[in-house]
Fold each of these.
Amino acid sequence: MPKGDAKTAGSPRREEFEALYQQHSREVWALAYARWTDSDLALDVTQEAFMRLWKQWEAGEDIQNPRAWLLRVARNLAEDYAKSAFRRNGTQAPELLSGIRSSQPMPSDDLERREQFALLRAVLDELAPADREILTLRYALDYDANTIAERLDIAVTAVHMRLSRARQRLAEKLSSHGDFAPAPADGETNRP
Amino acid sequence: MTTNSPDDLDRLLSDFFKAQMKNPWPNAPLAQAAEPSELATRLDAPRNEPAPARRDQTARAKFTLAASVAFLLGTAFYMSDGYAPAPRPGAQPATNGGPSLLNASDAKAPQGGVLDTLSKDKVNGGAPKVDPSQFE
């Protein structure tokens, strides 16, 4: 990319950036969310990763595979989160982050649902990161097995197996809280 | 809550993860943020992506290393007076009457001295008989 193109408002580069954001931001978010099960943090990481992509473009760097680059940066940011001041400071102006709506809108009277989700989040935290990742791709992004296999670079049969085991482990942990009785045998349902 | 079928778990998971995602999904960060200046970009270099190539610094470091080695070799050459080893003082007998080192095979005590007299007395089994006048 020639230097300076990224600075031009409404430039093709800006449009390409917007398209990349629409195409990959949820996946980047899912990756960060699977690491920390923190929705707001995952969104911070997502926006930071895209901001850095823009800076790279502005500096004239040629990024061959933006999706892979974004996922790598997001993964590093998520890993660095615990040992850095990124959470407190970041590189964006606070007023930008404060403009992001906090948590999901939830009716105040839906206490049971709140409790369900709190329990589910706690149980998800107990799972291995790989289990959380595949569950996030499946249920947050509605990816089918083929897409997950492509994204994780594994076989489709491996996706089914890992997904089934992750769900089974989740169900067992929920049942230990008395909230879920795992179905015998068949495990995974045949969702698309 | 009580969920007791895979479908219930599917539904619970789907609802949970969907609730975690912002709705509507936020716009791309640049739609809201002022674009960073080029200077700010360079000062605030991100540390999570591969480092850019730094040819200038690498070339400078190589040049400095080469200059240092050349200087070191030059200094050593100068101090050693070239590659030919200098003659060691005393390795050859002095021809001008100056001091010289003797070969080990040439070293011997002077005949008729005090040590020679002591040595003879000891061989003869007697007490050393030294003429004090020898020391005067």
Note: Chain A touches chain B through 65 residues (CB under 8 Å).
Amino acid sequence: MECFVSGRFILALMIAFAAFALNACISQKPWHVEEVTGHLPDLKFSLTADNGRLVTPTTYEGHLLLMYFGFTNCDSECPVSMARLARVMQLLGNDANRVRILFVTLDPGRDTPQVLHRYVTQFDPDRAIGLTGTTSDIERLTKQYRAAYRPRSKIGEAGGIDHGDAVYIFDSQGRARLLATSADSDEHLAQDVRRLLETAH
Amino acid sequence: MDLLYWFTPWEESAPVFIATVVVAALFLRGRARSNPRFQQKLYFWTGLAFIYLVSHTQFDYYAEHQFFIHRLQHLVLHHLGPFLVVLSSPVATLRAGMPEAGQRACRLIAEWKPVQYLLSALCNPVVAVTLFCGLIGFWLLPSVHFTAMIDWRLYRLMNWSMFINGLFFWGIVLHRGPIFSVRLSPGSRIAMMLAVIPPQIVIGAMIFFASSELYPIYTICGRAIGGLGAIADQQIGGIILWIHGAMMSAIGILIVVRGELMQQKH
């Protein structure tokens, strides 16, 4: 009897496992870029925007946010990534009005709100926002999203700052949903952003 | 940059801090009663210092953002640190440092049947070897590694699991007396250390010879050391696992052989 029960128990366990695996396969969301839902914390910051105002994520509530860490003196990844995000906005058409690009500077010493304003408006005058703050504010934000940033590093003082090329995508509630890189195509990124906008309602 | 800054934690972790302080305090208290030899004290403090330094200082930043430094961190957490701590045979000293109530609680837990079953299963040579190598392989699966490096909770779980597993494995293979009432012959302890070498070599070589980037998370989030390419970083990491991981087994085997020869002499 005992053997029968344990046999049945094992069978039930196997069925449950198979059902779970099948469910996972069916409900798997085929995003083009990396999905990070639940792995990265919700967006939380208090920084100065390029118009000089103090902003928090609630300022952009209802908008899907594309956050990128860079600095205006960067001559390789940052302009390329920002130009790419501007192209994604073009691909989105009218949907782009519900999206904002947040360019967070890693060089707050040089990137004042005015400098940032001049920089971001080159890429998208209406929907790109430059953000700056104290070194510790920016360090806290980069740490939360595992973005490499050493404000005290000597390499930083020499001019160049080593940083990643990740675009952190947050839904309209400020939840981290996707992580895009330069390896992802503009079209794929635009498709994923549009899909995220559709599921927001 | 002031020196003290390097010793401040990159990400504060109360469990790491509390565990280190408690273990250090127990050892200091127990020292008077159990009177450990100088060598034991040296091994214990070096091991504990290594473990703390790689997990609760600015070193952690580099481990998060450079693959080969992450491998160095795990070399200390899974191999060198636990190895040194076990080599110091600290159990008697730590127990002597515990207050009466703590000792009673430890005895009660150790006598609890489910705990005994679990421990004897974990002490099984096949289980111990599989867990030791399986854990290295599991956290290095590209998709698992990606998630573990972005999710701070999984990152901590990864480091803790490596450390606890290391402590367990080296505890079984280096300790001469019975562990949780399981006594393993010196031959099987040597065989266990030999058995963990090939998987580490294979995983290390697979990473070293990979022509594409296996762990893009470091490029995505940015590398700590500029000028070192993704493949070079990956190759150094692979070499660390390949050679240094296996090296610890060789040292462990020499220690077991020496211990047996010394005993025969007496």
Note: Residues 2-27 of chain A form the longest helix (26 residues).
